[in-house]
Amino acid sequence: MIQPSDGQPPGGGFGAPPASNAPPQPPVPAPAPMPPSVKVATAAIGVCLALAVVRGAVTSIEAGAGAAGILNAGVGVALGGLIMVGLFKRHRLAWQWGRLVGVLLVLEMAVLWATGAVPSRSIGDVALRGFNAGALLLAVIALSFPSAKRFFRLVCPQCGKISGKAADFFFTRATCKACRLTF
After folding, report:
1. Rounded distance between C-alpha atoms, residue 37 and residue 116, angstroms
2. SS3 for 174?
3. Separation CA 81–CA 76 (nearest Å)
4. Is 0.90 topped by the overall pTM?
5. How confident is the model at residue 172 (pLDDT cuts 50, 70, 90)?
6. How far apart are CA 147 and CA 66, in angstroms?
7. Is 55 exposed, middle or buried (0-12, 13-18, 19+ CB in 10 A)?
8. Percent of the chain with pLDDT over 70
9. What is the DSSP letter of 3?
């Protein structure tokens, strides 16, 4: 066997990785594909965001809404956009807020309709609001399926129970309600 004269080990030129004595790491599992329930939820939230943008633009043009009205619509669209991005990236916090914001907005719409606080100008306006509420409700229900909870890693690795309890403020870790394991 011939040794190189430049001090390089055999087969170890510039492109070869250095030898390591560290134990081999287990392979990182491939991310799970998005289940249909999460696809339905993201599509429903996406439709609601598109309707909010169109509705906000039309309302601000028609009524001459000031900066407060435009800011209100913009904050809502930004919050919905953050939830959408979080759902695509499998963030547990987005799962939690997608369900919470959906429920709160559906309740708000129901209360406003029941009290007559929002006068509807046409049947199209009522239909649009009803469609929006239905899409949000669909998103909430879709995110409540067990497949969605598995997708957002809410299954305890120790006992296998599904838990939606956050262990920290940003929900980067969850706590199992049954065995109290933080994962």
Report:
1. 34
2. strand
3. 9
4. no
5. very high
6. 43
7. middle
8. 75
9. P
